[in-house]
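Field reference: sequence -> structure
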Amino acid sequence: MTDLPIDADHDLPDEPQIAGSLLDLVGNTPLVRLARVGAGLAAPVVAKLETTNPGGSVKDRPAVAMIDAAEREGLLRPGGTIVEPTSGNTGVGLAIVAAQRGYRCVFVVTDKVAPEKIDLLRAYGAEVVVCPVAVAPEDPQSYYSTAERLVREIPGAFRPNQYENEWNPWAHEHSTGPEIWRQTAGRITHFVSGIGTGGTITGVGRYLKRVKPAVRVVGADPAGSVYSGGSGRPYLVEGIGEDFWPSTYDPSLVDEVVAVTDEDSFLMARRVTCEEGLLIGGSGGTAVAAALQIAARARPDDLVVVLVPDSGRGYLSRVFDDEWMAGYGFLRTSEHTVADLLEARSSAIPPLVYVHPADTVREAVRAMRKHSVSQLPVAKGEMPLAAAEVVGAVSELSLMDLAFRDASVLDRPVEEVMGPRLPTVGIGQGLELAVELLERAPAVLVLAGGRPGAVLSRTDVLGFLAPATDGEVSA
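Structure field:
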């Protein structure tokens, strides 16, 4: 091997290329073609990798813009406190700005946020308040209401309010959109993005439609979110979807919204990671799943750009944990699973019977008699339920005891007498786990695709292990 000649002064820049601060590195994220997951589709799919921002997500862009504007307008003063409800990424972006400029941070998150994202916020020195996800926005316990209360209570507090702050979409109109236009040499025909606050899709859509009105802007939305026609009921994907309409979202710019299930989102995130070597989060899986649908029906000369908002590093305990995925019924982890038992169970047994918290005990008893079940989950909402909507359970034994002691209990709401929620098991988890849980509880709730689908009792397991013989009646 011979040494190559070195010309140390060749092509040196005139000045050192050193950023003045971390904030100067926000933006100018790359595009990469998804050649493997997009193989065989009519049009190519390329990803805008917002993972390369200093905070690891697309939210760095509006974080800088919103704090810059607040300082200019005198809304945030030296020594002040930034308070914001966040799924984690906006918090990280704001925490980076705060670290650079000396602000205190208090972030409010829901209990569905992955623990490593909460730990990350705390690593930046932020204080984190955790609130329940399965409550309405106006509920005092919601993360919106909690953030508003903290702003009132903390002297010098400023809430950027990414859901209403015009500088949120402005950041994307003046950075993300122009970058995509330049990087694709103006050839982009479709832009696909998840919709959370609506800032990204609104800002990028506004710019792209100004320079090329024919560009189609497509939203990727968790099934159940209001953007795709749902009510905003709980879903597991973090960071996108809403249960209300933020003012930062302009629906007139969005040509189509594609609903994507939690299951398809998480499995796509894992597929992109394994096949492309690109570690993306659940909301990135949502966006890519929608983009592949768009590319499948596009033309060969079209170019589909999908925005990947963050890395999968913040979801290692969720999307990339086999046990967590199996626990929600997204993966099969055993040879003999709960699914095998349910398939063998009598077709006369309904998939899931439950009662609402406001239903009376008498109505619960009637449901038990009608369907010949001894355990009923108590849940808000209608089918298909979200796991977070299950709030408790009632049993035949406990209701009998209560009614015997006081007959008037039959006309009281179930929520006044219900017990704790039944333990859960994923439909793809091993039967041995179900048996273990049934040693401590009279029944378990089976999750499939992240949603409650059936109640499994000890009798069901016994019927599966010792099926009825000729002349016997199967339960």
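Note: The chain has three domains: 25-55+166-315, 60-158, 327-465.
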